[in-house]
Write a structure and sequence with these properties.
The chain has 17 helices and 14 strands. It has 458 residues and is an alpha/beta fold. The strands form five sheets. Strands 2-8-7-6-5 form a five-stranded mixed beta sheet, sandwiched between helices. Helix 5 links the parallel strand 3 and strand 4. The protein starts with 23 loop residues before the first helix and ends with a strand.
């Protein structure tokens, strides 16, 4: 097996979905109607949808079969116990609280622990964690290592927390910090992993200051695979064992099962502290549902449980990481600057550097994302000044990077789809100097990237 270079998908296609082919003229019209915001497009008008890897993957035969076992009892459904066992097999926290997706777990946790004046450090907060922290009146602080903010810098664990900076923050403002968050892998920082050594150091600091440590664990399996393949001494350990060690270093986790539950919906909050769990369950009942289903149907709980069994498979993870790197390597070979090394679930194009003639406040990431769609029907996602540039006090400033994320839905696209993406991106990059910026003509108070409307500049 090892001597062959071609990456093969470790699955066969069992059911197919049509892709509607469109022309550039069709896409120009769609863009104008969408206010040049790719979130506003009708998905039928997208050829290759790399907007997100969240909830967009293909479920397996065994997950569809598990759905038939879904039991919809309001309380104490057998499907709940199947789910609970699968979650605790990987993450043996005492309390597991099911939610409809990751951000519901975040909202519940941060509402219970944070408020005006508090401060939550993380490597990098994902947009929903930042928004949920800030919604309580608290401040979200990003403390990723310096290498994690420089797209071209090579480091095996660019998602690591800057431990000295965390220690300093806790010394200066420890009383204001209710918890520390580590995102694995670090999505907003380029899908970069966090090492076990770094997690152990963060744990040590949290112990010193008596602070709980929570994982934002959406992509735990990719993070564990990177640990296995990059961290000294980890190569011979089963992925499952590494995942359990990651969990053992934390006091709890928030999770979006739309990533590594391999499901289309779902999430959970898990933790050890009895008092906080009780408070969180009360909040759960208020808006999500009863404690044995949260915001989910019994059939969803079954699909997630089966997904969790599949996701720690070496063949799947090897293919996943290799096929993402295949896209990244081809883009870099074509002279397109990308965040390196490549993350697990996405390739991040460095739009600020490719479109250096577009100032950050004219959104180079938006410009590149729009052009990939206009030229080839590929939908990516701006992760930069549009997403992070507006601050709670109303001011606007450039984000630390202007990236376009091409996220790869799990088990969904084949290598020829990826080859098409490479061809289109090469064409767009060759025309980079002719691309222009955008201005925002309408935006909501928070999370503006989802619904803002734009206009081309010039
Ligand atoms: C790192 C990270 N945390 C949290 C979330 C939120 O999860 P959900 O979309 O299920 O609410 C996401 C979603 O993309 C994410 O990538």
């Amino acid at each position: 097996m090892d001597r062959w270079q071609t990456i093969i998908e470790p699955f066969r296609i069992h059911a197919v979905e049509p892709i509607r082919l469109t022309t550039e003229a069709d896409r120009e019209r769609s863009l104008e109607a969408a206010g040049w915001n790719l979130f506003n497009l009708h998905a039928d008008d997208v050829l290759i949808d790399l907007l997100t890897d969240s909830g967009t993957g293909a479920m397996s035969r065994d997950q569809w079969a598990a759905i038939q076992h879904g039991d919809e009892s309001y309380a104490g459904s057998p499907s709940w116990y199947v789910f609970l066992e699968a979650v605790q097999d990987l993450f043996p926290f005492r309390h597991v609280i099911p939610t409809h997706q990751g951000r519901a777990a975040e909202r519940i946790l941060f509402s219970a622990l944070c408020g005006p004046g508090s401060c939550v450090p993380a490597n990098t907060h994902f947009d929903t964690t930042r928004a949920n922290v800030e919604y309580t009146g608290a401040e979200a602080v990003d403390l990723v290592i310096r290498e994690g903010t420089v797209p071209s810098m090579i480091h095996p664990f660019k998602g690591n927390v800057d431990v000295a900076a965390l220690e300093q923050l806790l010394e200066d403002r420890g009383d204001a910090v209710p918890l520390v968050v580590v995102t694995v892998t670090n999505n907003s920082g380029g899908g970069q992993p966090v090492s076990l050594a770094n997690l152990r150091d963060v744990r040590r600091v949290c112990d010193r200051f008596a602070k709980p440590l929570f994982l934002d664990a959406c992509r735990f399996a990719e993070n564990a695979w990177f640990i296995k393949t990059r961290e000294p001494g980890q190569a011979d350990r089963p992925v499952k064992e590494i995942v359990r060690e990651m969990a053992s270093l934390a006091d709890g986790m928030t999770m979006s099962a739309k990533k590594y539950g391999l499901a289309n919906i779902g999430g959970w909050l898990a933790l050890n502290d009895d008092a906080i769990a009780e408070q969180c369950r009360s909040l759960l009942i208020l808006t999500e549902g009863f404690v044995t289903y949260g915001g989910l149907a019994g059939r969803d709980l079954e699909a997630i449980a089966q997904g969790l069994r599949e996701v720690v498979d070496d063949d799947y993870l090897r293919y996943r990481i290799r096929s993402t790197a295949y896209l990244g390597e081809a883009l870099v070979a074509a002279g397109i600057p990308c965040v390196q090394p490549f993350g697990g679930h996405a390739v991040y194009l460095d739009a600020r550097s490719l479109l250096a003639h577009i100032p950050p406040l004219e959104y180079p990431g938006q410009s590149l994302a729009v052009e990939l769609y206009r030229a080839g029907g590929i939908r990516g996602c701006e992760i930069g000044t549009v997403m992070f540039g507006r601050h709670p006090d109303g001011s606007e400033a450039p984000a630390s990077m202007d990236l376009v994320r091409l996220a790869i839905p799990r088990r969904t696209y084949t290598q020829s789809h990826v080859d098409y993406v490479i061809e289109v991106a090469r064409d767009v990059a060759a025309r980079a100097p002719s691309l222009h910026g955008y201005r925002i003509v309408k935006e909501p108070a928070a999370l503006r990237h989802f619904s803002a409307r734009f206009e081309p500049v010039g």
